[in-house]
Amino acid sequence: MKATSPVIAAYLLGGASLLLPLAARAEPAQAKPVQKAPAQGQLVYALASASQVQRPADKPAQIAPVETIDLPLAPSEKDWWGATLELSTVLVLGELLYKTGSQAMEDDFDYEIDGNAAEFFYDRLTTGASWKYDDNDIGMNWGHAYAGALYYQAFRNHGFNYYESTLGTFAASTIWEVFAEYKEVVSINDQIVTTWGGAVLGESLFQFSEMLAAKEGWLPTGLSYLFNPSRTLRGWFGYPSPNRFDCSQTQDSFSVYTGVRYASKDKADVSSTMAMLGMRAAIDSREGKYNTLSGTPSRVEMMMETAVSQEGVEEWQMATQLLLASYGRKHKGGGLASDWSHSFYVGPSTGMEYTSLGLELDEDFYAVVNLLGLSMGANWSNQDISIDLRGDLFGDFAMVKPFATKDYLSQGRHFWGTKSVLWEGEYGYAWGHTFNLSLEASYRNFLLGMKLKSQRWSSINDKENERAPQWNPNNSDLDFDDARDRYEIYLSYGISKDLTLSLHHERIDRSGEIHGIDNPGIYSRLDDSEQRSWLQLEYYYY
């Protein structure tokens, strides 16, 4: 894993000590007592594939339905002044931080205002001359997702819906890129990550903040404060925000897990034993009042996980996904235990993922925005048995460390004179797709699951839209193609209502190619497989 953790992790976890003492929050809704289902498999790499929120009610369920008065909600009033004030505060604080560190970023400065300032900014906004893919460090670039989440929540906290808040995030990102960072390129990749990634992360944290406020324990309470800092601070100063969701029929889940993992790579001939720590959360409103494209995303899922060995932090994984709306049908069986019920759904979805596995040259790194996709699933169940099938297909914008890098460097080559982002950050920009498929079958307290995750990315090769500083002109351009296939099987047993034990095995097949564009004689290829096994203990909060 990279020496510096992603900015998003620092923001989400590093501020906990400041926010935990805050006590003002909305009154939690009363939850009906429900049994809990055996844990399903780990969501480390396929949140979209895990059927977290579809368990038969008679089985111990991981999801606790929350009951409130079932009355239609009046539309939230949009508070333009409140949203403007909150957004302005975020932008001003960001500009102060930017100015503080500007000396260290002088290498990124390509422009100066020369002459008419109004004309300078007009051209910067309306022409494509300044719009480029930048070459910043990955921590800086992926940190824009958290900045986007703050922009997004500035609107969401004040009565705007998902789509309005996403448009507001794009406008705020454009203001930042064009005006605040006027000495730099208007970063295309920052616009994508801030807008799409920020909307996905912002909506996830927005909904989870409300959900966790109703859970018992210091951890859910602390994360509730942290996930929506503006709402927390306003409550701290006596301006509490009411919950914006009618939770009738809504199902939710929050759990933390730990375990021990052994991983070995075939060709690299390296192995490692690691201690794991992670969390998962999900909210399913498909049977509530929000299952429309114009409303609140009807299902939200998130996971975060880190793994530590004697060498340090070896793994960091985070993923979140939104089901924007769905069309579905449900058939309930008769009153007998052997009678079967079945249901299905299909709908548009979006998501994001950050994965760093391994150390130094053996690190496998990619950060992905699942721009738009299609999700579908089906369930068959009776009193004792439940079968869940889920699948997703996304179009991706990705930041990828080419897997063939190790072979490329072993030939005595380097990235100088290629894409500047490869030289500066050892990663490149790519388009591609992600496909998820999962199947789970449970019988009483036992659950058996299988997952497949397949990803393909090809580098974006467009010199005209790449930042090419004079000190590193791209005169020996490279193209790369990467593939990842992950297969997992797991067996889980529900020890009690809130505790499960599971055994997992995963195989990861990786391959990558690097081709010379300006110099066709350049070619590198690397293929490797990794075997991973772990024992996991998971605790669920109510």
Q: What is the average per-residue confidence, as pLDDT, rounded to a whole number?
A: 84
The tally of strands reads: 17
| Rg calculated over all Cα atoms | 24 Å
Element order: H for helix, E for strand: HHEEHHEHHHEHHHEEEEEEEEHHEEEEE
* Helix proportion range: 25-40%
State the helix count.
12
The spatial strand order of the largest sheet comes to 5-6-7-8-10-11-12-13-14-15-16-17
Shape assignment: globular
Strand content: 35-45%
C-alpha end-to-end distance: 33 Å
Q: Low-confidence spans: pLDDT under 50, at least 5 residues?
A: 2-75
Main sheet specs? 12 strands, antiparallel, barrel
Structural class: alpha+beta
How would you characterize the overall build of this protein?
By secondary structure, this protein is an alpha+beta fold. It is 25% helix and 38% strand. The protein is built from twelve helices and 17 strands. It has helices at 7-14, 16-19, 80-100, 117-126, 138-142, 144-156, 162-180, 188-213, 218-227, 229-236, 405-410, 420-425; strands at residues 30-31, 64-67, 131-132, 186-187, 251-265, 270-284, 299-309, 312-323, 327-331, 341-357, 364-381, 385-400, 428-443, 446-459, 478-496, 499-516, 523-540. It has a twelve-stranded antiparallel beta barrel. Strand 10 (341-357) and strand 11 (364-381) form a beta hairpin. The protein is globular, with a radius of gyration of 24 Å.
